[in-house]
Structure formats: structure tokens, C-alpha cells
């Protein structure tokens, strides 16, 4: 695979433009189809050498053509092959029709397929370009295959999965392996598409990297260090604690202080030079009993906060973990509107009835990070959340533009978006990160990076990645306290 190309994310529309540009450059499109089909056939022979019958389900477009090429090659290798075609085979056009004509055996209607023991299915029905719900005939076949537990190798993407959003269009195959070409699509990484793909392989079928890169228009990527490494703080020898940033985490009242401490500890572990917990008077002693390296500062109301903010070294704050929902949170945010702020949990919920009040306070250079889970996102951005035409990436991008903030749209497929349109899909988080307090740790990590001078979007993306890394080190059964101790600076 050409260096770096397989790590790109192209939307189905961008990949179509790549195919068109490749043909216009003189590359024979049928040769590309032959290589794609060969990759699929090779995958089946490698993983299922004892297959009794290869069942190739072919659709009405070029994805079906890939299936016919694979069927021919498997038949040539001595495998028993049967092809089931969606629609009339005579209606195939171009390269797909040429591939169909090269298949020597009769083709059967898709609706007649009944799974057998020993079958291995090649799903070449739709691929990544599906933009509507699958028809009932396909949904019925998907259900029969699911009930029979027949293994499926998907061509490009399991049929029924939207390549742009990862959502299921009515019904979708669950593949043991997905064979894609040149680059991945967002649907390979977004849920539930990521789970439905099984193991993903990306094959180079011979399109030059210059063509692929030229057609990539949208700034969507997997959340990897190359997205933000260049803006991480220097590890030079000449430094001190204030150069490494001072992070302030606001605590809740007595009895509700644990979340802030986990956030503060994560911030310290993530590299902040100083971390202070700002707590109301009744919570100072409670916090002090648990703290050593983390400092404490008593703060009751916004007047005291305003006086403290005369110290210009205080530039980065985390507000929300255990803080409490209500007017106090809104007043504190207003006082911090010219600073860098990670707003999480109760801080987000405090603006559920007046989100524009929040957004209007943070104009100019983005310095606000919002970390909503699904429910919080819906309360802050109800119209965006309800738009079924948008996928998770598009929703995060629209929210970031509206709020002028970096958005961390949390979940198994966390999406980080910037007001300028950039977006990253995170993939390194283990499922056991879904535990109480995990989000508090994440807020502290992001805050620590911002305190060290990392811009909001890059701090959010790097923080999510570090959070996933810490979860992998902590292992199954982790608690949020253990997670915080496993955070490592980048």
C-alpha cells in the first residue's frame, strides 16, 4: 500500500471522484475492478480454505462487478461457486456487465438464496455508496444469513451500512471481514459500522497516491498523533512549572468533590505544571484530606473568582465535574469567558435551556471545549441532534461551528470537531472506558493540554487519544481512579 494512503478517510463521494479521476488519467477501470475482485477472492481462500461453497451476492453496480471477478477467480481455483444477482443481470452496465459476461455459470435471483452449512458469502451488493434503505428482498436475505450464522466477507462495506455515517440503512450484514480498496471510509470507523465490518483490510488496487490525495476535500481523519503532534508542547530542558501551565478545576460542594479530584489528578498526570482545585468553603477540608501535589483555593461565589482572576497566569479551567447544575455554573462561566475552558457534565447541563447564552460568550479564537455525551449533545443542540440526514461527524461539525468551540461528541466512536470544519474519529478507546468518572478524567487531560498552550481542537483530539491509551493500560474492570493514574503525558 502506498505510504499513508490506507490511513486516509475518504467519503463515498470522494472515492467516486477518485475513480473518475483515475479513469480520466488513462488507468483502465476494468483493471482496477480485476484487482479488487482478486483481493476479495484471495481473502476468502486464505481465511476459509475448506469452504464447501462460495456464495457471491452481486448488486446492480460496480460492487457487483467486483463480486463477479471474485467469483471467476474462485471458480478457476476449484472452489464451488454460485452467484445470486439482485435484479436482472442483463441490466448491468460497463465494467460490471463485462465481469458478469466472464462468469461461466448461470446466475440465480438473489431472493432464492437459502443458506447452507459450509457456505461462505461474498457480499458484493452495495458497498459504501448506499444512500437509501435496503429493499425488503435484501433485508430478508440478510435476516436469513444472520439466523444461519453463515460467515460473510463484505466488499468495501457490509451492505446496508452507510459509508458516510456508519449507520444502518434498514438492515445490514455482519461481516467477519471487510475488504476495502485504497482508503477507508468514515463508515468503517463510525458505529455501528465499525462493529459490523469485522476485521478490515485495505488493498492498494493501483490508483496513484496523487489522485487519491487530490480528491480528498473534507478534513475528516482518524484521531491519530499526526493530527496534533506538531502543536504539542516542547520537552526542552529550560522550563518550569508555570511554563507547563496552571490548570484550575472547580470542585462541587461537600460530598460531591470526588469528580473534581479525578479530573485534577488526570490533569497533573497529563503534564500540567500546576493544578489547583477551586472549592467552596464547605468542601475545602474534604478535598484537603485527599490531596498532596494538587493545590487548593477556596472560592465561594463569582466575586471571589473575579478577584482571583487578576492573576494572569490563570488561563485554563475545567468546570462541570460534580459542580452542580444551575445559575452558579452559568455565572462562573461568564466570569471565565475570556479564558480557556473545558465545560463538562454539570457545566453543560447548566446551559440546556439557554445554549446561545454560552455560545455568545466565546467568540473569537476558539478557546472553549465542550464534551457532551449523546444526551447532553441533544440538550445543547436539539435541532442538530434530531436531523436524521446528518451523521455523527456532520453533527459534531455543525455544533462546533455554532458554538465556536471544539466539540468532543462522546461515545464508542467519539468524534472531535473544530469550528473550521476539521473532524477526527477516535478508535483507540476500549469498551471498558464506559464507567462512572471516565469523563471527568478526560476533561482533566484536555484541560492540562490547553494549559500547556495546545489549541482547543488539538488539545481535545490529543486528550481523547491519551484517554483511550490510559484505558488500555488500566485494563478491563478499571475504575476512574485507576484510569487517572494511568494517564501519561505525550
TrEMBL record:
<dbReference type="InterPro" id="IPR029056">
    <property type="entry name" value="Ribokinase-like"/>
</dbReference>
<feature type="binding site">
    <location>
        <position position="373"/>
    </location>
    <ligand>
        <name>(6S)-NADPHX</name>
    </ligand>
</feature>
<feature type="domain" description="YjeF C-terminal">
    <location>
        <begin position="223"/>
        <end position="490"/>
    </location>
</feature>
<dbReference type="GO" id="GO:0052856">
    <property type="term" value="F:NAD(P)HX epimerase activity"/>
</dbReference>
<dbReference type="InterPro" id="IPR000631">
    <property type="entry name" value="CARKD"/>
</dbReference>
<dbReference type="InterPro" id="IPR017953">
    <property type="entry name" value="Carbohydrate_kinase_pred_CS"/>
</dbReference>
<feature type="binding site">
    <location>
        <position position="259"/>
    </location>
    <ligand>
        <name>(6S)-NADPHX</name>
    </ligand>
</feature>
<dbReference type="GO" id="GO:0046872">
    <property type="term" value="F:metal ion binding"/>
</dbReference>
<dbReference type="InterPro" id="IPR030677">
    <property type="entry name" value="Nnr"/>
</dbReference>
<keyword id="KW-0630">Potassium</keyword>
<dbReference type="GO" id="GO:0052855">
    <property type="term" value="F:ADP-dependent NAD(P)H-hydrate dehydratase activity"/>
</dbReference>
<feature type="binding site">
    <location>
        <position position="322"/>
    </location>
    <ligand>
        <name>(6S)-NADPHX</name>
    </ligand>
</feature>
<dbReference type="Pfam" id="PF01256">
    <property type="entry name" value="Carb_kinase"/>
</dbReference>
<feature type="binding site">
    <location>
        <position position="156"/>
    </location>
    <ligand>
        <name>(6S)-NADPHX</name>
    </ligand>
</feature>
<comment type="similarity">
    <text>Belongs to the NnrE/AIBP family.</text>
</comment>
<dbReference type="GO" id="GO:0046496">
    <property type="term" value="P:nicotinamide nucleotide metabolic process"/>
</dbReference>
<keyword id="KW-0520">NAD</keyword>
<feature type="binding site">
    <location>
        <position position="159"/>
    </location>
    <ligand>
        <name>K(+)</name>
    </ligand>
</feature>
<protein>
    <recommendedName>
        <fullName>Bifunctional NAD(P)H-hydrate repair enzyme</fullName>
        <ecNumber>4.2.1.136</ecNumber>
        <ecNumber>5.1.99.6</ecNumber>
    </recommendedName>
</protein>
<keyword id="KW-0547">Nucleotide-binding</keyword>
<dbReference type="GO" id="GO:0005524">
    <property type="term" value="F:ATP binding"/>
</dbReference>
<dbReference type="GO" id="GO:0110051">
    <property type="term" value="P:metabolite repair"/>
</dbReference>
<dbReference type="Pfam" id="PF03853">
    <property type="entry name" value="YjeF_N"/>
</dbReference>
<keyword id="KW-0511">Multifunctional enzyme</keyword>
<keyword id="KW-0413">Isomerase</keyword>
<feature type="binding site">
    <location>
        <position position="439"/>
    </location>
    <ligand>
        <name>AMP</name>
    </ligand>
</feature>
<keyword id="KW-0479">Metal-binding</keyword>
<feature type="binding site">
    <location>
        <begin position="410"/>
        <end position="414"/>
    </location>
    <ligand>
        <name>AMP</name>
    </ligand>
</feature>
<keyword id="KW-0521">NADP</keyword>
<feature type="binding site">
    <location>
        <begin position="127"/>
        <end position="133"/>
    </location>
    <ligand>
        <name>(6S)-NADPHX</name>
    </ligand>
</feature>
<comment type="function">
    <text>Catalyzes the epimerization of the S- and R-forms of NAD(P)HX, a damaged form of NAD(P)H that is a result of enzymatic or heat-dependent hydration. This is a prerequisite for the S-specific NAD(P)H-hydrate dehydratase to allow the repair of both epimers of NAD(P)HX.</text>
</comment>
<dbReference type="InterPro" id="IPR036652">
    <property type="entry name" value="YjeF_N_dom_sf"/>
</dbReference>
<feature type="binding site">
    <location>
        <position position="123"/>
    </location>
    <ligand>
        <name>K(+)</name>
    </ligand>
</feature>
<dbReference type="InterPro" id="IPR004443">
    <property type="entry name" value="YjeF_N_dom"/>
</dbReference>
<feature type="binding site">
    <location>
        <position position="440"/>
    </location>
    <ligand>
        <name>(6S)-NADPHX</name>
    </ligand>
</feature>
<comment type="similarity">
    <text>Belongs to the NnrD/CARKD family.</text>
</comment>
<feature type="binding site">
    <location>
        <position position="63"/>
    </location>
    <ligand>
        <name>K(+)</name>
    </ligand>
</feature>
<keyword id="KW-0067">ATP-binding</keyword>
<feature type="domain" description="YjeF N-terminal">
    <location>
        <begin position="15"/>
        <end position="213"/>
    </location>
</feature>
<feature type="binding site">
    <location>
        <begin position="62"/>
        <end position="66"/>
    </location>
    <ligand>
        <name>(6S)-NADPHX</name>
    </ligand>
</feature>
<comment type="function">
    <text>Catalyzes the dehydration of the S-form of NAD(P)HX at the expense of ADP, which is converted to AMP. Together with NAD(P)HX epimerase, which catalyzes the epimerization of the S- and R-forms, the enzyme allows the repair of both epimers of NAD(P)HX, a damaged form of NAD(P)H that is a result of enzymatic or heat-dependent hydration.</text>
</comment>
<comment type="subunit">
    <text>Homotetramer.</text>
</comment>
Amino acid at each position: 500500500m502506498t505510504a499513508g494512503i490506507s490511513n486516509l478517510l475518504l467519503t463515498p463521494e470522494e472515492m467516486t471522484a477518485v475513480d473518475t479521476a483515475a479513469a480520466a488519467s488513462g488507468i483502465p477501470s476494468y483493471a482496477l475492478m480485476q484487482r479488487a475482485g482478486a483481493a476479495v477472492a484471495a481473502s476468502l481462500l486464505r481465511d476459509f480454505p475448506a469452504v464447501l461453497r462460495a456464495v457471491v451476492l452481486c448488486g446492480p453496480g460496480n460492487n457487483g462487478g467486483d463480486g463477479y471477478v471474485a467469483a471467476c477467480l474462485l471458480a478457476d481455483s476449484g472452489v464451488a461457486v454460485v452467484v445470486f444477482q439482485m435484479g436482472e443481470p442483463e441490466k448491468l452496465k460497463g465494467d460490471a456487465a463485462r465481469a458478469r459476461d466472464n462468469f461461466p455459470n448461470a446466475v440465480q435471483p438473489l431472493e432464492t438464496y437459502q443458506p447452507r452449512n459450509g457456505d461462505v458469502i461474498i457480499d458484493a451488493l452495495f458497498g459504501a455508496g448506499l444512500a437509501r434503505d435496503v429493499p425488503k428482498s435484501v433485508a430478508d436475505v440478510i435476516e436469513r444469513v444472520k439466523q444461519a450464522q453463515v460467515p460473510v466477507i463484505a466488499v468495501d462495506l457490509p451492505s446496508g451500512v452507510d459509508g458516510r455515517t456508519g449507520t444502518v440503512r434498514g438492515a445490514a450484514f455482519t461481516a467477519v471481514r471487510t475488504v476495502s480498496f485504497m482508503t477507508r471510509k468514515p463508515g468503517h470507523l463510525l458505529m455501528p459500522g465499525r462493529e459490523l465490518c469485522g476485521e478490515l483490510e485495505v488493498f492498494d488496487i493501483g490508483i496513484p497516491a496523487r489522485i487519491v490525495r487530490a480528491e480528498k476535500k473534507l478534513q475528516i481523519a482518524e484521531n491519530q498523533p499526526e493530527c496534533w503532534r506538531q502543536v504539542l508542547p516542547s520537552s526542552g530542558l529550560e522550563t518550569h512549572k508555570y511554563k507547563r501551565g496552571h490548570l484550575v478545576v472547580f470542585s462541587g460542594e461537600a460530598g460531591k468533590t470526588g469528580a473534581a479530584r479525578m479530573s485534577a489528578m488526570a490533569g497533573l498526570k497529563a503534564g500540567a505544571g500546576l493544578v489547583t482545585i477551586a472549592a467552596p468553603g464547605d468542601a475545602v477540608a474534604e478535598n484537603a484530606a485527599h490531596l498532596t501535589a494538587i493545590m487548593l483555593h477556596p472560592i465561594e461565589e463569582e466575586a471571589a473568582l473575579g478577584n482571583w482572576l487578576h492573576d494572569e497566569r490563570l488561563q485554563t479551567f475545567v468546570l462541570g465535574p460534580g459542580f452542580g447544575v444551575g445559575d452558579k455554573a452559568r455565572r462562573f462561566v461568564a466570569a471565565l469567558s475570556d479564558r480557556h475552558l473545558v465545560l463538562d457534565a454539570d457545566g453543560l447541563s447548566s446551559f440546556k435551556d439557554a445554549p446561545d447564552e454560552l455560545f455568545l460568550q466565546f467568540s473569537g479564537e476558539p478557546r472553549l471545549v465542550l464534551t457532551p455525551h449523546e444526551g447532553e449533545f441533544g440538550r445543547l443542540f436539539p435541532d442538530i441532534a434530531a436531523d436524521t440526514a446528518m451523521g455523527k461527524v456532520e453533527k459534531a461539525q455543525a455544533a462546533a461551528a455554532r458554538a465556536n468551540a471544539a466539540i468532543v461528541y462522546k461515545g464508542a466512536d467519539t468524534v472531535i470537531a473544530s469550528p473550521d470544519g476539521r473532524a477526527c474519529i477516535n478508535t483507540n478507546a476500549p469498551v471498558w472506558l464506559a464507567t462512572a468518572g471516565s469523563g471527568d478524567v478526560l476533561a482533566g487531560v484536555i484541560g492540562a493540554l490547553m494549559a500547556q498552550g495546545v489549541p482547543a481542537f488539538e488539545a481535545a483530539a490529543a486528550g481523547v487519544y491519551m484517554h483511550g491509551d490510559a484505558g488500555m493500560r488500566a485494563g478491563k474492570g478499571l475504575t476512574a481512579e485507576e484510569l487517572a493514574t494511568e494517564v501519561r503525558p505525550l
